[in-house]
Records
---
Amino acid sequence: MNNMEKSRGNLLLEFFSEEIPARMQLNSEIQLQNLFVKSLTKRDIAFESFKTFSSPRHLSIIIKSIELEQKDQEIEKRGPRFDANQKAIDGYLKSNQLKIDETIIKETNNGKFYFHSQKIKGQKTYEILPDIINEIVNGFVWPKSQRWANTDLKWARPLRNIVLLLNNDVVKGEVEIGKNVFLKFTNSTFAHRYLDKKIVINKIENYEQLLEENFVILDRNKRLEKIINDATYLLDKEKLKLVNDKSLLEEVVGLVEYPNVLIGSISKEFMKLPREVLSTAMRVHQKYFSITDKENNLESKFLFVANSIKEKDRDFRVIEGNERVLKARLSDASYFFENDISNTFENWNKKLKHVLFYESLGSLHDKIIRMANISQIFAKGFGVKSELAKQAAILSKADLVSEMVMEFPELQGIMGGYYAKIKNEHEEVTKAIFEHYKPKGVSDDLPETKLGSLLSMIDKIDTLVGFFSIGKKPTGSKDPFALRRNSLSIVQIFINFKFNLSLNELLEPSLKEYSCSSQSIKQNLIDFMIDKLKYVFSNTSNRMDVVNSVLNTKIINDIPIKIILSRTNSIIKFTKNNDFKIFLANYKRINNILKSEKFSNDAVLQVNTKVFDTIEEQNIYNLSNTFSKEIIKKGVCEKSQDILITYLIKMNASISLFFDNVIVNHNDSKVRVNRLNLLKNFHNSISKFSKFELIEN
Amino acid sequence: MSVNNSFQKIITSLQSFWIDQGCVLLQPYDLEVGAGTFHPATVLRVLGPDPIWKAAYVQPCRRPTDGRYGENPNRLQHYYQFQVIIQPSPEDIQNLYLESLKFIGLNPNDHDIRFVEDDWESPTLGAAGLGWEIWCDGMEISQFTYFQQVGGIEVKPVASEITYGLERLAMFIQKIENVYDLDWDGIDKKKGGKTYGDIFLQQEKEFSKYNFEKSQTSSLFKQFNDAETECKNLLNDKKNFLALPAYHQCIKASHLFNLLDARGVISVSERQSYILRVRNMARSSCLAWMGKLNE
């Protein structure tokens, strides 16, 4: 053994507790490593690498090649004053075993003092470890935690045992978890529940292996792999496949210490239920995976992961038990389905009158009436029949009081769609109801049909405007009504379908429904929507400067959103054009001149053409007027955005000549003001297209 | 069918198991409650005065909205819970629970037992705790909770509560798919043996009808208000208050609220305020029990 090896060793820390919720496990691994690394760095103890593990009951970290002794530390200590009497100085030297030339004299705020440096021997790592572990335990933050028995410590579930080994030896020490309640460090942990066995860890390098032999797979990824491999093996034989469900898979990984993949059967009688009902009933309550054939048809089988060791008799019993539970669940679902089918939309809508949408925003019935009204204004623009739009809106929320959705809220919309179909509603209406909660997040699919998009949008606008109108807009990290996601969905649908509406037109009908005439609420809403537009753009464009230049134009509220899109794209296209670059420079020069002047407002300023004494002034004057007219005429046409930019480029010569031959800062204040006003009007007219000063060169 | 796994045998086995663990064996509280937790032996006792409290009891529970006129094989508006409350929570409580399963003929090692996150909260009791629902081969057979708070008051030391759903458990053990087919007494039908349905089917039909259709809501509203007034009166005098009778009124009000809920006469906006009124009764009663009403 060389010195290097002697000075370093391996460390194992394991927190053994009762079953930690699946959703918290992965994060607890990350937290453990962060806290440990922080504690070691703070104390100047180096290490080479680490690996963390988490299962329902075991949370652990192995640190490789950690220093067995803290580095020595040098600190500066102050002695007596420089002018102290000799006796004091001698005393100081003696008590610190110093010679005079080992000291230095330093000036401080309080005068000159003797100083010397003192070496503090680094402590042994095993001596410091108890402090570190206490620090980690107390520093841990769980999303939800509890006390137990007489403890003060909070952990996700009761913490029962702590393994702490350094170089395979138990570190002496304990963690205080309550007043006079301690957990001593040990070298033993526990096997899978079935074995009900304490196991002693003799060697850190065998830890993972040892636990696996005792049916605890510590590594999450290994458990995941085992599930996938076993599932694939079982399904391939029958030419079947698993319905991909990543979040369920991750949850299941956190529910088992030793995954045992099993397949059960669904009674044929239930296969007539809508596919979504089957998979939701299986997923939500039972955490079962759905299985399909190669053509994606749902099979009358389900896959689940038991926390057990494979054993034929037991597996048989476990499958049988799970099949029985599922049968009960599905017969419940069938019962709801049958009851719902014999009910009517009229009946449900009557019930909606008693279901509050939100305090002071009326009932859900009020909501569908508002939605129906708004739908009439937008239907044409969406290219859908207005009576279908109305019908879809009126039927959209009925399923919220159906028995099935009361039981499985995640089936909202989907059941409404099925029930509308059964009641022979128009196909467009049933599809719209089916998909009107989409998109449920940034990565979710958008509604596929036009009517579905319209319905989704007006539902969300109604919610957004409603909550803003009663002052419930999101603040900071708080967004209890998910209005951010909501407005983002509106923008996504809008962009996808390129609807020809401005933000004003989009929000006005809904504000009217709520009888809200407050300008500040409207402005808040518009700002909020612009923010979301920016967010969507930022995901697709690397020219946020251009995006901002368009979004910051004064009249943005009235520009149709599809124009905002095409204008942004046109400008981005031109940013590489040399003439455009010259225009940009010219515009910025005008902007700089105006910046130093204070204009009271953005109204059109008085320009007296009689005061002009150069042709260049007249030219700018004409250009300004022409562009103002052009932007009104062509500004709202998607395909004319390039043309408008070409107009701007064509102004380059006139602007250059103006700057060459006209002095803005004229001695005669009348002339000066007139020229400034001329430029300001010109600037305003161009700014209606884009605030070019925001574009980077 | 063997005598050993009858419904009543499961109850007596659980009783003797938990008696052996040092629990006092109590009888059901004599009022309609939504869960075994409502029993004063749980709600009030975990708040003191003795820091050690171990009790076990059967509690019939009523959840009017769960009534299905006896037509659903799994849902009942009246059913039984077996409740175990131990304070402070013992270190080996999970193992004790698994042992108790063995004791009633359900060997955990023959099955897939899972502790799945399920945090418990009772808005009407102002109570909350963390724990699991316990799955046996995918079937939820028990609830396990570490009580953190009751009546909005911190529970110290923490108590552990185990609630066995007796019908579910018995159905699992007897491998029965319809609750009404449960063997109640282990006696052959021909010799006069009774099933769960023999005893309770008629009750389910009649009470479902009562809960959903026939109850007089005006009278229920009045009774709710009366219970609330009575509860307040009993706690009014800060020196001579009566905590237990006050809590008794709170339980009454809670069930009346459930009956009104089943009739669908409490709107969503009113709902919250009714829950709050019951919670206030619970909280005041708890404070009174602890002698802290004045604080």
---
Amino acid sequence: MANVDLDCQGLSCPVPIVRISRAMKELASGDTLTVTASDPSFQADIEAWVRKMGHQLESFADTDGVQTAVLRHA
Amino acid sequence: MSFSPPTASDLEALVAAAVEQRVGGAVADLERAVADLKTQLENLRKDCPEDRATIVAFSGDMDRLFAAFTIASGAAAMGMEVSIFFTFWGLAALRVRTTYSGKSLGQKMAAVMLPSGPAHVPTSRMNMAGMGPAFFKMLMKQKNVQSLPEMLEMVRELGVRLVACEMSMGVMGVSREELLPDIDFGGVATYLGDAARSKITLFI
């Protein structure tokens, strides 16, 4: 099971979700995608995105405005 | 006449006959009921909305088109099939060139009124004779928000279906050659065909 990092810092809605969607398509079941982002709507958006797509949000952390989400491919 | 005990196959046949007599009709009824339910389910599935979003881009204003493209790209990123129908002023978003030859006077006037592409559209408020869009663009750049032409490029890359309304093209005097090359053309039924299958439909 692989992990891929995706830097979405400085990108504004809807670009992070679009990039995540593209990156996730390249992954296989069980792989993880670690996303860093600064968009203020990122947490709400990523939660809605995984719910809709059926993937899992393994963890979410916000350290000094840098948000890190680990997504696991279903 | 001698009595011979029934064989296993005789017994099986007797049991099968008895079962058929008692439940045969019921099985046939059940089979009919299941077939009927299957047909009903198929019909329901046909009426069910798909994972699809349909947007009418009526406005040619930068901010409204921006909202349309943001929702379209977000929906595509969430795995939905997305169509945008461009009608009247919305056609400006698809325009790549302006031609005047072969147009009536009215159509020539409309050709002047309709902005010549997504980089040249006004804002719905505070347009200030064209200063508003420049101000908006500056703010968007500061906030690292994509420009309208970049948003259009992104929705195209995401496979969003772009449809130009032929009827409003006729009214506005816009020819196919003036619009992006790889888009679809259609009428109200094209829109309704997609909208009827959609979970989300918006008029912007």
